[in-house]
Amino acid sequence: MISITSAELNYLVFRYLHESGFTHSAFAFGYEAGINKSTIDGLQTNADMDDDFSFLQPLDLITKDPYELQRIIKAKKENLQKDRLEENGKHNEDTQVNELEHTQEREEKKGREKEQEPGKETIEKDREHEKGKEKEKAHQDHIINGEKCEDKFVMEYEENGTLGPEPMDISTNTMSLPCDISSHDVTILEGHTSEVFTCAWSPSGLLLASGSGDSSARIWTIADGPGSSSSQNGPLNVVVLKHFRGRTNEKSKDVTTLDWNGDGTLLATGSYDGQARIWSGDGELRNTLNKHKGPIFSLKWNKKGDYLLSGSVDKTAIVWDIKTGEWKQAFEFHSGPTLDVDWRNNVSFATCSTDGLINVCKVGENRPIKTFLGHQGEVNAIKWDPTGSLLASCSDDYTAKIWSLKQDKYLHDLKEHIKEIYTIRWSPTGPGTNNPNQQLLLASASFDSTIKLWDVELGRLICSLNGHRDPVYSVAFSPNGEYLASGSMDKCMHIWSVKEGKIVKTYSGNGGIFEVCWNKEGDKVAACFANNVVCVLDFRM
């Protein structure tokens, strides 16, 4: 019987993956298995492989293909060599060459140390700005929590269907900019006793609504101007909207969704108990809407404000007549839970479900006026564009799609994410908006930790925003369309420049972020966290 060592087996698996075309898997497996250190006779390895890996972040191995990794390594090597030559610019040419060779030899001896400490050159530069912290711990914290704007934030461009310029590392000059939002610009709203799942600004003023797993919603009155402190612990103008009658909170009444009507006079909340509730701006319960037989996951007012639309786990969507407080029509066309609903105009809307279907319905019609088939997994979210002519959808099948009522098949199939897409948002730009001269964009946020911006006319990726380290649950465009806020399970909220594709502000909290939203003026961003708080960030550029 022939026996083989574990090293030989690893090498066989590596070669199999590589020769079968799975270059990404082979690259990652080779790194983990230490193929480059193998002592197998006849195995030719790259003597510089240890150094190559030291230029990469752990997440790079998962999210980028080998060709991108090679570009990153090449660019960083060139930058490193350039920096060294500049440092030794006062020496003669021979001294420069000798010093470079000596440095390379010294790095080869420390290959093992470099493998344990990826991106050491970046750490040395960061240490000037992070005095008093242990270098290794600071670097690990930054990788895990994404607390600083380092050169790990890269932007990938697509042009003509192929990779364009190499991934762009933020320069050391950018790293020194005040990217973190100051604590003086943060107001922390405390009071909820469980995760805060959803939040929304009133369109009429400085009222912020939040919904939580503690069976309550709250309406906060936010002071105008910058936050004066990092926390509001004193008497705060807040109204508590209790969704339970007993003395103790009932978990079955988690507030899962909420939405203000167009003039900001009424707030609708949807709960895990299957009931929708209508509240006044000062917190008075106006009506309880009871027909669903399962949790409500989505709730939307039409623009006119006379109908409220709800989608439930019970597979239905219901249109409610606000004047009478009764249900107008129930739509039972899905075979699985209804996950999202969105109005197209005052009388027609779309619904999506775990059954993979998207239905376009109209009040008064007994059947869908259109059914879109094409997703191969649960459809998590749907959104009409500002004119109501295009419908965007995203799914567990890793794709987003754009549909038109003029045809049955999707207009564009957007396939760049590598994990489930949780949510999508249209930019408030283009025809029918307050920013008609700007390009209409679609943003998609995924469990692959990236946000992608799409050209919806061509169905092409414009750029990938890579700054988060965990699933991204929420994105929101600023009212002028120039910025995009994103919230992730990595506890960070980033604000991106849409034009430049880079982070301009970042805030790190103490819990995962479920939702982010801008106020109508575009100078405040709210974020709701898994550690029971809502943060309001003052945004100025």
From TrEMBL:
GO terms for cellular component: nucleus. It comes from the Eukaryota. SMART domains: LisH, WD40. One of its GO terms (molecular function) is transcription corepressor activity. WD repeats lie at residues 189-230, 248-280, 289-330, 372-413, 414-464, 465-506. PROSITE patterns: LISH (PS50896), WD_REPEATS_1 (PS00678), WD_REPEATS_2 (PS50082), WD_REPEATS_REGION (PS50294). Residues 83-142 are annotated as: Disordered. The keyword Membrane does not apply. PANTHER family: WD40 REPEAT PROTEIN, WD40 REPEAT-CONTAINING PROTEIN HOS15-LIKE ISOFORM X1. This is WD40 repeat-containing protein HOS15-like. It comes from Juglans regia.
